[in-house]
Amino acid sequence: MVHSAGDDPLAVDVDLLVAGVGACQGGVIEHTRYPGLWHVFHLQAGVLAAADSAVSELGAALRRHVEATPRWAASGRSAPVAPNPDDVLEHLETYAPGGLEQRVQGDRLRRP
Fold this sequence. Notes:
By secondary structure, this protein is mainly alpha-helical. The protein has five helices and two strands. The protein starts with a strand and ends with a helix.
């Protein structure tokens, strides 16, 4: 489940992500675009009706995902191990020194 806002400068990147996942064999992604809204509009939940709706939609999608029988359970394999948050942060720092947001902004400035 991916949400994007129509006035978010990262909306173009979301479109690329959605297209990339869709192009993968077995890749499934739900994408909802919220026209006229801005980056992180979800933080306005409780104030903005569209944010309330978006957060509810995310909750429903998460609920569906959690309630579905995991593929690993049907195969008899043990549950996958969640990544260590420190490893994830270390990877992000390697990929985007100075923070991912700074990397995204830098990439956006270099694009033609």
